[in-house]
Amino acid sequence: MISLVLQRDGYEVIFAVDGRDALASAIHRMPDVVLLDLALPEMDGVRLVQLFRSYHRLSSIPVVIFTGLSAGGLFEEAQSLHVSSFLIKSMATTEQIRTAIRNALMQPLSDGRMHAPEKWRGDSISPL
What we know:
5 helices; five-stranded parallel β-sheet; disordered C terminus; Rossmann fold; 5 strands
């Protein structure tokens, strides 16, 4: 459902089947923002964000956590990560997801540039 909403909003949505695929896809495609679940096969979302932050090319990609986990080890660990937003699937509205993505795209990169151009265009999001 979220994918359809985002596509209707003009985003290019790229899917990954698991954490390893997400990492390879991000390296290859360089998304503008990543919409990430914590519970992923092969590699959990926490480890994926840690790897993003360790790769220079991926380190400034904003990550919006969108997960069904609201307690437990992964949830606790994810709260310490440098992510743009943290949304719980059962509580987040479509508008909150849209807002989190827009806000993530407007965050400055480490060199002061913005992820999105001055005129909003919404390029690509990788829901993982």
